[in-house]
Amino acid sequence: MLKSLLSPLAGPYLALYSLDKKIKTVKKTKFQVKTISVGNLECGGTGKTQIVSLILGMFEKNGISGALIARGYGGSYTGFVTPDVKSAGDEVRMISKKHPSVPVVADKNRARGFRLLRDKFPCLEAVLLDDGYQQYGIYKDLEILLLDWEKPKAGGVLPAGRLREPLLASRRADIILFTRAKESVVPPDFSRYPELSDIPKLFCDFKIAAIEKNGKKVSADKRFFLVSSIAKPQRLLKNLSESNFSVGGSLFFRDHHVFSEKDTDKILSGAEKHGCQEILCTEKDAIKLPFECAIIRSQVSWLSGSEGVFENYVMEALK
Description:
about 30% helix, Rossmann fold, 13 strands, single chain, alpha/beta, 9 helices
């Protein structure tokens, strides 16, 4: 019902989107550093943060002096981010903690973020642009687009669906990485999606590697109370079940939610009410909670030989 009411608004939304794109692409700015963009058509929920962390890990492994520029969703802070900057968004704080050697800048004006990095790190070799697919005015050496394998069209464009741009906009991508893909359906039949033809496609899923607390593994025989402020938390719940972790109760908040004292009380009382021994959350949520909890460590699981191919694309773009 709601979708049918919102669908007529898709036309005006697309008109404004097209105007915004035309204005921003009049002149592209090419910064004097190799630039890789990871982004979505959908409004979150594709696992972008895990892919960003994966690429930063490639920089570190190969001795590349790299940095991250992100909008800093959920935060009001602009500038260089460290894990203790509470006014910064949860994702950039988490990335800063996970990759302490990588400079992380939060700035909704990405061009200003580039200048900030250039002034402080003039010898920088690479910049990873987080959520950069709609940054039309910035030149990129590699444009990586993430699509949710289960629902690439995500119900259509805003406001009825979850797409910022129509699926046809995927043609700007150098490669498409389908996330949450399943081995049983790869390679798939793309006849339903002619918009995606002739673009290199790779496939991955996200698996739970371990649950840890204070740097030590937590036994799977515990009963967990799941707290989440990520997009599509039901998928996380499903992954936990498939990995044989017992979730006795859960409490979900909107994506990037900032936990209040009242929220904390609800979490603690919820865990007690459901007889759970551990409060469980993602790395992104753990950075915001005021108490120690069990943390889900996830990893990228590649399908159909995509792993080596993906890293080759990244490394070639940096040459």
